[in-house]
Amino acid sequence: MLQRRYELRLERLELVARLEAQLAAVKALDAAEAVEFQQAMTPPDASVDDRTYAEMSVVEEIAGVLTISSAAAGALVEQSRRICSLPPVSEALSAGTMSWQHARIVADETESLTAEDAASLVAHFFDPAAPNAARGAAPGELVPSRFRAKVRGWRERHHPESIEKRHVKGVADRRMEYTPDKDGMAWVSLYLPGDTACAIWNRTTATARGLQCPGEERTLTQLRPDIAASLLLGAGNALGGESGAGPAGVTAIGKVPTSRADVLVTVPVFALLGLTDEPATLDGLGPIPTSMARKLVAGGAESFYRVLVDPRDGAPLEIGRKNYRLTPAIKRWIRLRDAQCTFPGCTNRTPDNETDHLQAWEHGGTTNVSNLAQLCRKHHRLKHHSQWIPDPATKDEPPGWTSPTGRHYNPEQQDSEPARWPQWLPTSFRGASERETSIGATEAADVCALEDIGFVEELGVPDDPGPLEGQLPADPFPEWNLFLDFVELEAPVLSC
């Protein structure tokens, strides 16, 4: 009886969420049409000022009806207009398959796009028949923050203005902000280039991990700001706190043992060579300018890896039942495939996620990529102490999950796109992605063609262009995407 009541509450919550989305669709349509009707009633010969004041009047009416501020009403009108101008988005909202927050994300991210580019973005996420359509979980099945990250990633790759130019503008806007808060607390925020911010986060996290010991009572979340404050304020580079740090209560940051954090960057090889301007991807951030990726490479990348690891040394990913311990190649592949904790709705992308056997080793599970997935510590423990069951994974797809009440959650998959080839390259030399929809044996011919025009030495392509079928997983990022492994990535300001 209690189990049925529990399940009924979940069913009602599910229904409420669908009804809220449908009501939001009605609200958006009414807000957009209210402005349209007012404009239709305005005399054709009305001045620009008269039309502006007429629209302002409608916005104020909407604000009064909904008891919200004028600014909020204006934002609602603009978002509603954009949502209603994108039929697949408004239809999904009306059907209750995604929330108002999801629809608003599409409206926000398409604001600076042309109508054609906005339609392409919407087709990618909402039309399964579109070229290179998004895979895995549907928009409404992703938590809003993850959906925004995926939409923003697509926008960065297809924006009419190159990411290099937009990054230059963004760097000029870098700043630090201070915001007082309640209870004698305050926020300090930094707006920085992505690689620097990523380095700061990884450095403070690694230092916090190094400080955790039996005598340390502070959590990882508490240690990060303590470390950052100590580094910024000096104080002899010593770190203390109300709870102390070890027996003496103070630890010199320079003496804290830190683990070597991997920072993964995916770079199309032609972009790395300066032949195309497509963006690279920084793990935990998303698309970045290729110039930033080149700087990271020049700044100390210890090794290059193709997405299918390194075919020159044949590092295998499938090691079967011979070993429980994971190889570095497997760990990198799982991080590349999953990008974050695979539990439904979790957004934890930190490098210290744990790689878990989906089918336990003691129950016959193997140590290969199809039986492994990333889980944060919280959800790793939950998996082993509850009835949440993961699906089998594949080499290229993370697992979905089934809840204790039988609800299934599709996996979130990475958006990969065929690399761009230099326009001056003859069509016969270009990759399979430009000639056909599937990647296969033609890749070998591509390499041979590139040899003829002198690229092989620069690209570091081995004599044997590809592994035998079944030895290594297929490259999920087609056409010469490189997987760069940064063992230690630090910004200059972090030296201590």
Automatic annotation (TrEMBL):
<dbReference type="GO" id="GO:0004519">
    <property type="term" value="F:endonuclease activity"/>
</dbReference>
<feature type="domain" description="HNH nuclease">
    <location>
        <begin position="329"/>
        <end position="381"/>
    </location>
</feature>
<dbReference type="InterPro" id="IPR003615">
    <property type="entry name" value="HNH_nuc"/>
</dbReference>
<dbReference type="InterPro" id="IPR002711">
    <property type="entry name" value="HNH"/>
</dbReference>
<dbReference type="GO" id="GO:0003676">
    <property type="term" value="F:nucleic acid binding"/>
</dbReference>
<dbReference type="InterPro" id="IPR003870">
    <property type="entry name" value="DUF222"/>
</dbReference>
<feature type="region of interest" description="Disordered">
    <location>
        <begin position="388"/>
        <end position="423"/>
    </location>
</feature>
<dbReference type="Pfam" id="PF02720">
    <property type="entry name" value="DUF222"/>
</dbReference>
<dbReference type="Pfam" id="PF01844">
    <property type="entry name" value="HNH"/>
</dbReference>
<comment type="similarity">
    <text>Belongs to the Rv1128c/1148c/1588c/1702c/1945/3466 family.</text>
</comment>
<dbReference type="GO" id="GO:0008270">
    <property type="term" value="F:zinc ion binding"/>
</dbReference>
<protein>
    <recommendedName>
        <fullName>HNH nuclease domain-containing protein</fullName>
    </recommendedName>
</protein>
